[in-house]
Amino acid sequence: MDDKEFCNYxxxxxxxxxxxxxxxxxxxxxxxxxxxxxxxxxxxxxxGRILEHDVLLDxxxxxxxxxxxxxKKGISALRHILQEKPEAEFIKTIPRRGYSFVSPVRVxxxxxxxxxxxxxEHEIIVEEFEITDDSLAPEKIIEITPASVKALPSVENRKxxxxxxxxxxxxxxxxxxxxxxxxxxxxxxxxQSPFSxxxxxxxxxxxxxxxxxxxxxxxxxxxxxxxxxxxxxxxxWIRQMSVNSTNRLTPLVNxxxxxxxxxxxxxxxxxxxxxxxxxxxxxxxKIPLFGGEPQRIKEKVGSFAISPDGKRLALVRNIGETHVxxxxxxxxxxxxxxxxxxxxxxxxxxxTPDGKNLLCTIRKxxxxxQLFYISEISFENGAETIILPxxxxxxxxxxxLPDKSALLLTSREPNADxxxxxxxxxxxxxxxxxxxxxxxxxxxxxxxxxxxIVSTQLSRLASIWISDNISTDGKMPQSKSLINKSDNFxxxxxxxxxxxxxxxxxxxxxxxxxxEDGKETIFTINGDGTNAKHLTNGEDGVWTFPSVTxxxxxxxxxxxxxxxxxxxxxxxxxxxxxxxxxxSSPVTSARILSDNTTVIFSALQGKESILFRQTPDGKVTxxxxxxxxxxxxxxxxxxxxxxxxxxxxxxxxxxLISLEDGKSIKTxxxxxVRQISFTPDGKNLASLSQSGGxxxxxxxxxxxxEPFPLTDFQTDEIFSFAWSPxxxxxxxxxxxxxxxxxxxxxxxx
Length: 749
What we know:
Layout: E1 7-11, E2 14-17, E3 22-25, E4 28-30, H1 34-45, E5 51-52, H2 53-60, H3 68-81, E6 91-94, E7 98-101, E8 106-109, E9 117-119, E10 124-126, H4 146-150, H5 155-184, E11 200-204, E12 216-217, E13 223-230, E14 233-240, E15 245-248, E16 255-262, E17 268-275, E18 283-288, E19 295-298, E20 303-306, E21 312-319, E22 321-328, E23 335-340, E24 344-351, E25 357-366, E26 369-378, E27 384-391, E28 395-400, E29 407-412, E30 419-425, E31 430-433, E32 440-441, E33 445-446, E34 453-467, E35 489-491, E36 498-504, E37 510-516, E38 519-525, E39 533-534, E40 547-548, E41 554-559, E42 566-571, E43 578-579, E44 587-592, E45 599-605, E46 608-614, E47 620-622, E48 628-633, E49 639-646, E50 651-658, E51 664-668, E52 676-678, E53 684-691, E54 694-701, E55 708-709, E56 717-723, E57 730-746
Antiparallel strand pairs: 1-2, 1-8, 2-3, 3-4, 5-7, 6-7, 9-10, 11-57, 12-13, 13-14, 14-15, 16-17, 17-18, 18-19, 20-21, 21-22, 22-23, 24-25, 25-26, 26-27, 28-29, 29-30, 30-31, 32-34, 33-34, 34-35, 34-57, 36-37, 37-38, 38-39, 40-41, 41-42, 42-43, 44-45, 45-46, 46-47, 48-49, 49-50, 50-51, 52-53, ...
């Protein structure tokens, strides 16, 4: 199970025992009130996440009206109990939002057997656990003394007591039974009105942080299905909501699950497996809900949806054009529905509530722009009815509410690379938000009664850290040994939801982009974490990717303020915005050289990002011939390192190219990387390596020597890094990126 009801949590010198509701430090018990225990437990269970004030109040003080002052007192008490230092080693205040538990947490499973309820097909079984703490015993042991005997009630009174106890026991059993039945029908009870955006609440169902995209719910709401990234591979997990029982449904595989669904009668789970280790096993499968042998029923399927009656599957196959067809649940009786034009791709498919049509989210290219629209396509004759007209708003799948009054869908924010959930009313062409935060949500699924929606939520909490001196005059030690320890870094900012693309100006200020209030904005900040200022207003679209120009005094970034995303330049104070390129297709990344005019940039050419150089006279020449990812330029601006796709192997590699004549010098078989950089002395390449959710900066000598780690972090991912102007220090953006399954419903329902 990825979520355990009983376990121990360890952080720093402390241990939190959930079953005994006890806190200890180095083995010594630490006094903790019941309310403060609940507050600490909830924060520890959600370590690394930003916990809003209202969420903490609702979870810890449930059913009680309290103000934020009560929460502040609770946090203050915890800090005193944990003997926290001024640098907030355990609880970090997130200004104007809430708090985050930032200390690394280790989960230690309970060793003894645990009491839990599991439901079988015919009965409910209560399993026993070993009682090792007197406080958990069902009755207290009372010592009988002469004084206590005199105080015992009379025989008649005892008879009356027994009668009352019997009545209370029967009543108690009835209450428990009713409560259990009520809990079981929590998600499956029939309601008259569908989901409403009024007073919605997002509730996290998993806490592993490793749930992959695509959480789905059974039509009756009894089961939740999601893929989980584990150390040895990926698997599908099924959660029985009534008893919070979670089990792995499929074996671990080296690959991914592309789409999945639960049959309306809860008999089978259907999923598409992309098997990397054994490609011949890729395809559409079905497996019994409670486990069994997977059965492949179709090959070469890109996506699918199951009909409301569970009798047909709508399948998508991309073979040049996009083919939509249906089959029965055994993969047979194939019937073509429609073929989309070559310039269109299906981004989402579901059935209409009546099972007569397919609801399709489609992306098409028109006048070099990507447009999205939603249509219903008849299951019988392929006739198409437009529901949402074509527009530039990025849409990722949609489902109808049961009464077809509105669509629920996820859409990318216009000025930040995060997805939010919306409600769209076709008749009046009206939009209403369901979520409004700095998290990102994957495609949504909906219960049959329309009461609850589920999705996968991506959240991030990151901070800027700066190292002590690691070199002299920018010269890197040529050694395979570790040259920098994680405790040589100091944190200079509080956690922010989405940090990206760090850079260092020549005057010692750092630049970065951060997503706040649904907008990505470029900031500068002093090296000691003071005087953070925003340089842009957040109206530049997504993927601004800021970087410091070669002279260290200006900033380049991407902006769609002039429609197609192009390269722009601003001064270090944000003034004098200048458009630098006029490419015919969107630019995907860029660097401006030290002359403040020459631009190296990548732009879409067909479906691939290709690297180009634009000289001061405006002339553009092509530098690469295949898909290009991240790239870096040496300080002397003579070398280019680029992540490029090898068309023969289908894998990315790092290619070293001369900027003087454009010739390839050397290649390195790096894995796919998030960032590449030259070290200040120009003798190495630095990149990011990740294992077990922890990132390190790796050094690859250009002379072909063995790569070695520059850092020794024990926790967190690195999202970006940059060298100081003198080359002696490194700044990094570090933090946690967490993916979890969530349910969203109205709080008054």
